[in-house]
Amino acid sequence: MTIKDLRTELRKHIRDYGMFIALFFIFVIFSITTDGVFVSSRNISNLLNQTGYIAVIAVGMTLIIVIRHIDLSVGFLSGFLGAVAAIALVYWNLPVVVVIPLILLLGVVAGLITGYPVANLGIPAFVASLAGWLIYRGALLLVTLNTGTIVIPNAAFNAIGNGFIPDLLASDWLLPNSHKLTLLLGILTIVWYVISALSSRRSKQEYNFEVLPTDLFILQLVFVSALIGVVTWVLAGYNGMSWTLVIVLLVVAVYSFVTNRTVLGRHIYAVGGNPEAAELSGISVRKITFVVFGSMGMLSALSGILFASRLQSATTTAGTLLELDAIAAAYIGGVSAAGGVGSVVGSLVGAIVYTSLTSGMNLMGIDISSQYIVRGAVLAMAVIFDVTTRKIGSK
Amino acid sequence: MSDSHILEMRQITKTFPGVKALDNVTFSVKPGEIHCLVGENGAGKSTLMKVLSGVYPYGEYTGDIMFDSALQQFRRISDSERAGIAIIYQELALVPEMTVYENIFLGNEIGGGILVDWNETIKRAAAMLDKVGLDVNPEAKIRDLGVGKQQLVEIAKALSRDVKLLILDEPTAALNENDCDNLLELIQDLKRHGVTSIMISHKLKEVIRIADTVTVLRDGQTICTLDAHKGEVSESVLIKHMVGREIENIYPGREHQIADETVLEVSGWDAREAQSGKQVLKDVAFNVRRGEIVGIAGLMGSGRTELARSIFGNPDRYELSGELRINGESYSLDHPGQAISVGVAYVSEDRKRNGLILIQDVKDNIVLANLRAIAARGVLDENAEVKVAREYRQALNIKTPTVEQQVNKLSGGNQQKVSLAKWLFVEPNVLILDEPTRGIDVGAKYEIYTIMNRLVSEGMSILMISSELPEVLGMSDRVYVVASGRITGELDIADATQEKIMEMATN
Ligand SMILES: Nc1ncnc2c1ncn2[C@@H]1O[C@H](COP(=O)(O)OP(=O)(O)OP(=O)(O)O)[C@@H](O)[C@H]1O
Ligand SMILES: [Mg+2]
User: Fold this and answer.
1) Which residues pair with A182 in a beta bridge?
2) Is A347 left (phi over 0), alpha (psi -120 to 50) or beta?
3) Same domain assignment for residues B122 and B136
4) Which of A45, A167, A221, A380 is the most exposed, having the fewest neighbouring CB atoms within 10 Å of its CB?
5) Which H, E and C letters describe B333-374, residue by residue?
């Protein structure tokens, strides 16, 4: 292998790796400025938990932006549904296993309602969802009018946002300070990753398709495995994997699979790339619009659950500005407003970048006014980077 | 440099990742001539012109450009405009929602500084329109004009900038015969007024008609430059240089095996625009039999595309009445997806707007309309996808470094082939082709005609809309003529002539 191969390969995929590189630098900078506190197990664990409720909304928003729309209603929708969940638990005494599906279902319905004027009447999503923004904001205030903050005393529900997976393999003699189940999961993930990468490579070779040169491929395997390993190790050093992280990873895995590997995913990107051509290819743009808005509603509901559970209560301001944070995360993660471009994993990374900035600057004791300015600058830089690398790619 | 040339491009080399689009090309143009540039799809014609006009700035190619007795290093399009070069691209570049006069002076507004002097603009626009012989109100919106007129507006726009060298990239590809004539006459008229023109075209007849000199490119290299006044230019000579071999017949022969079985039948077919209530189609009736190629001739804007789309699941949401029968069964199709599922496919005329997803790659586009064929329970088999795409790339000879190439990086003609491949992969019973060979070179046309013949011999039926009468006559078994939303005639191929079709199309 030559360094040149590596460089051309990196250049070709600069857009795919760019965010990881940015994230890496952010981590390095904050580690230095906080004397290592930033990369401590405890802080990383916290950071990922904070990312959770933004990340799930960012995932949904990615698809919305891919099909050339926007949804401003999701922040207050998530706050409102979080409050409904609290009411269902506290006042209606419904069990958690009923409340969660119910809230998710309500989310889907809300998403479809936002989607209706967009899909069927051609009303700009900006306007349709702005109406939703106002309505859900009012609804949130209304349901919390008498009580103010609703405290949720339900331990099972609160574990979603604060709890960790139990360590089934706990023992005193082997690595007593590490969370063994988390380590095991990490190892299994690495094994699964290596096996699936190998088998996909083999089947490509059988078809005589282009694959990475062997040395680069091995480098990639080692790099990704090491990355998973380090993250696992760091998490295992605190309380292990949190339930929030499990949920987020599941959401990202499912959405990533659907967008990359299924007919539905192709249809979504086709509608985003050229709606007229998609329609003439037999894809119902209307149906796809409903599906994407429905999924957005469901993920808003999930985000509402994560947030309420994390705070162990529903507040009158829950979800405020969450939609804009999610939009920022999606753009940092590389979606394009022109439609048809953007990945779910990218948006997850975007969300992590976004919360890392908050977390790191909080640790450094930087005041909130400067924090906004820095976050704005990072967003602007990310989008500029995206546009310029796309130009390089197309020349 | 010799004084006898207004333009000399020397040893121009331009590479894209994986593609050497221009390889040491030399190209010279004499002042006051009409110089035609011909070559196969992907030969590098458009790229050469983009190098000349500064789309690919100095530094992104190697070689020298001498224009107007000076070495030029254009860094952007405005540099070449200032030097007196105007280019009209393969894709029209007008703003549909703006008026004719706004478009003509777009980027070149008249007025002292910040404010635009609209009265003066309109007056000068009218003068420009007069010059190109276009009789429209300068205040009309572009989107209300036909393609032919839009093309003339583009030329008016170019002329408004005091142009010495006018470059036209396939200006007639989307025009009907009449508009073509007008345009070619205009170019000759400009020549009398001292404007030098470079024209790219795949229509060799018009090349022969107006060219003083012809340069042939093949695979990014200059093959030869021929002087029309020395009798060096003829259709067969051009084809030989372009393709590298002789092609005897432009239309391959075929055994006509038409079954007595009607596959597609439309009767009493009316269509109205839902909002305005404007009648688009009136009492249309026609049929297509198994194994038959039926030609639909007519002028641009006569309703041919509307007819095809109204059958193909009606994406324009016309109010329809009448009967549509496919394989004897009556259908009312509400969505293109339904049309596809009953075996109808439609290759649209405007590949950029509604044929392809330009930001996606070749393979994604080819499989898009038939994803089910490469999926099990909704999950795609990506290896199968690449395999399919490679098969079509080979079958249609699509010029691209890999099937993972983005479609908007392909040359115009190769994009058209991708669009065709996409619909062949659907394996329809009835294939509706709307201008199937627009912008396609002679060699590739022959390949497409051969494929059409093979498909009908395997039992497919083809409905072919075309503005090129020789193509209609050369390929069809039967011809319907459409004029202002009605069918004005039906001709068996044995009785069809250009004159008869034109008469029916214009009455
Ligand atoms: N932006 C680009 N990126 C990569 N390759 C490109 C790009 N533009 C053109 N090419 C490649 O360069 C070659 C020449 O393309 P060009 O558009 O000049 O062909 P052309 O002669 O105009 O063909 P046509 O008659 O089909 O319009 C083609 O192989 C094409 O795929
Ligand atoms: Mg071209």
Assistant:
1) none
2) alpha
3) yes
4) A380
5) CCCHHHHHHCCEEEECCCHHHHHCCCCCEHHHHHHHHHHHHH
CA dist., res. B359 & res. B409, Å (int):
9
In a domain, A172, yes or no: no
Do B506 and B420 lie in one domain? The reply is no
Residue A88 placed within a domain: yes
Alpha-carbon span A279 to A271, nearest angstrom: 8
Name the nearest CA neighbour of B23 among B42, B36, B7: B42
CB atoms within 10 A of CB A325: 21
The reply to whether ligand 1 has any atom less than 6 angstroms from the CB of B42 is yes
From the CA of B113, how many Å to the nearest CA of chain A? Answer: 31
Amino acid at B235: E
Q: Residue A266: which of B346, B356, B380 has the nearest Cβ?
A: B380
> Could you give the 3-state DSSP secondary structure of residue B97?
coil
Beta carbons within 8 Å of B478's beta carbon, 6+ residues apart: B292, B294, B295, B490, B491, B492, B493
Residue A351 lies in a domain: yes
Backbone phi, then psi, for A53, in 5-degree steps? Answer: -75, -25
- Which ligand has its closest atom nearest to the C-alpha of B219? 1
Q: Model pTM? A: 0.88
B397: tokens are 């000879």
Closest residue on chain A to B405 (Cα): A394
* Residues in chain B, total: 507
* Residue that finishes a domain, picked among B395, B427, B459: B427
C-alpha B11, offset from chain centre: 29
Nearest CA in chain B to A267: B368
ipTM above 0.90, yes or no: no
- Asked whether residue B163 is domain-assigned, the answer is yes
Q: B65-98: per-residue pLDDT in tens?
A: 999 889 999 999 889 988 999 998 877 678 888 8
For residue B336, give the chain A residue with the closest CA: A282
φ, ψ dihedrals at B418, nearest 5°:
-60, -45
Considering the domain architecture, whether residues B325 and B454 belong to the same structural domain is answered as: yes
Instruction: Count up the domains in chain B and report the number.
Output: 3
- Determine the residue type at A171: S
pLDDT for the residue A71: 97
A288 and chain B: CB distance < 8 Å anywhere? no
Select from B397, B427, B457 the last residue of a domain: B427
B455 with B420, same domain?
Answer: no
Are B266 and B236 within one domain?
no
In a domain, B65, yes or no: yes
Q: How far is CA A319 from CA A61, A68, A133, A152, B142, in A?
A: 15, 23, 11, 17, 46
AA identity, residue A120: N
Closest CA to A325 of A16, A21, A61: A61
**The pLDDT value given to residue B155:** 86
CA of B47 to the centre of ligand 1 (A): 6
Q: What is the pLDDT of residue B19?
A: 85
Residues with pLDDT less than 50, chain A: 393-395
Domain that holds residue B401: 353-427
pLDDT tens digits, B275-321: 888 899 999 999 999 999 999 998 877 899 999 999 999 999 999 99
In a domain, A1, yes or no: no
Which residues lie below 8 Å from residue B244, measured CB to CB, with a gap of 6+?
Answer: B218
Number of domains in chain A: 1
- A261:B382 CB<8 A: yes
The residue whose CA is least distant from atom 6 of ligand 1 is: B409
What does pLDDT average to over chain B?
90
Q: How far apart are CA B371 and CA B44, in angstroms?
A: 33
Q: What is the pLDDT of residues B22-34, one digit of tens each?
A: 999 999 999 999 9
Please give the Cα distance from B15 to B60 (Å, whole number): 8
Ligand nearest to the CA of B47: 1
Domain of residue A115, residue span? 14-163+285-394
Which atom belonging to ligand 1 lies closest to the Cα atom of B410?
Answer: 31
Whether B252 is covered by a domain: the verdict is no
